[in-house]
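2 proteins. here.
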Amino acid sequence: MEALGNVLYKAADAANWTGRIDGEDPASKRWHQIIDLIDLDKELPVMQFKTVLLGFCCDEGVRRNQGRVGAKDAPAAMRKVLANLPDHLFPSFEIADAGDVICVAEDLEAAQQELAKRVQQILEMGGLPIVLGGGHEVTYGHYKGLRLANPSKKIGIINLDAHLDIRPLKDGKGNSGTGFFQIAEESKTEGLEFNYMAIGIQQISNTQALYQYAEEHHVEIVEAYDVHPWELENIQERIQAFADRVDCLYLTIDMDVFAAPYAPGVSALNFNGLVPDATFIRILECILGQANLWTVDIAELNPLYDIDNRTTKLAADLIFRIASNP
């Protein structure tokens, strides 16, 4: 598929996967030594039990939302760190790179459509997509791909984020803050349930109007100040109940859910977000442990503002945990 003479999709490139070599012993290998490279425009292998990375090189939604652009470079930055991760699940671990969806000439809508197509392909071949964003405009395209692959199933979305991202469209166009609004309004039109749980939300980052819209649409909210060890069991029970009432679970992690010392390289910095400690990891593990988890993405990583690769390394750690989940 082409737009203005430029491709919207680029197949995986071996040049993105280089790194340290500790030996050829299978127990010593790293991701760059074991990863499969996929071209989604060619005949596809069966991807059953395979984790499939797909980049979303886009921050047009962030630009429209008046945020800090630079998230389009996040997939390349994440691959650079991921390449050196160790394989802790040999011989059962299978991971592939399916390349990148690219936003061309500020055409966010075409990029989201392309992303939907590629996510659908991966899902229908049995893979677990991990989409490497990109701004949080990734949500709308990612959801559309999941919907195309599962037209009759009930979908639930868990968003780890400081923001609800349910802003109305501006001038009829979406941006990085409108994804869940678009999904909610389309669900209403199509007679579908809107199942949305947001964890890590901060009052300082959301207007009263957004909270009101969330309440009217039965959004489940776990605010950042409620994420504590003494609330862990309650949060896990809420996650379990949410997952139990849907067929397909989609997890999206916006890196600005974390406090600035841990995630300075984001499109919208939060000085006092979540800490990636044991409590957070237990929450993440609860989500990853759901049998109906179908797809995941990482959003809003902005390498341009990162410090010592802190945010990129944190994102890589999350991806490592997701891909290594049995």
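next one coming up
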Amino acid sequence: MDLIQRPRRLRGSETLRKMVRETRIDKSSLIYPLFVREGNNIEEEIPSMEGQFRYSVDRLPYELERLSRAGVSSVMLFGIPDHKDEVGSGAYAENGIVQKALREAKKQFPDMYYITDVCMCEYTSHGHCGVLCGHEVENDATLELLSKTALSHVEAGADMVAPSDMMDGRVRAIRQCLDKNGHKETPIMSYAVKYASAFYGPFRDAAGSAPAFGDRKSYQMDYHNRREGMKEALTDIEEGADIIMIKPAMSYLDMVSEVHKATNVPIAAYSVSGEYAMVKAAAKMGWIEEDKIVCEMAASAYRAGVQIYLTYYAKELAGFIDEGRIG
């Protein structure tokens, strides 16, 4: 055959394949989600997320040490309070669970980077992400509580805040609150393109945050919509978001690509609990090779345009990067 173009020339050896690799992955781009709860000496496995745990504050440093040894330097903290009420007061309490966890973590591992999820669902007795008026979430009344929560996290030591509630205007409200209180340098990573997804099921088990009635479709996005996701991303950037997150990851890589092309801010994606649980379940049955699937899923997110990857497999991926299996 008289062929000029032979793409296989660049696939002939492992060294050459790595040399021409288009997608690069670094451990510094990984964020590990962590669940912290009230109590002492608690490290309880989450039934629907094998290998993931809820930690009391005194046990949290042991997991931070494991992450540090693996080379994962950033975590996202989710709080599980003992007390819940109608207005989610535990979210912004001075001695709330996330606030206590931040102070202890900062003391023991000051070089780790701490991001906090800012939402009300784990703290409200009804499980919704804001203040209720009847059975409806009252958008504007919720903004004040989200701002108070973000400020309390930063004052307790958070390096970045990540609002996940999907209320209109919450990025602007949080930005103004932080700036007013002397935290102009604290970045906001907005869950801007967050879909009402069935992939969140295991997380709601882990955090005890399932809504007591109804669903979240009046504030989280319809998964049929693409242009709406772009509107959310651009609106949040105008309001002061420094990083835009797409959630979930695996089924929404088209949105990762779209937002990446249309904006000039870093793009994050959250490989959520349902993605993790499906891989774990299939691997346990012997139907897939877990490590290869994990690498392939991560590479697909970065290939689509992700620069930051939130994943429950952060430690494993860090090891795979060290081994040269990915990245």
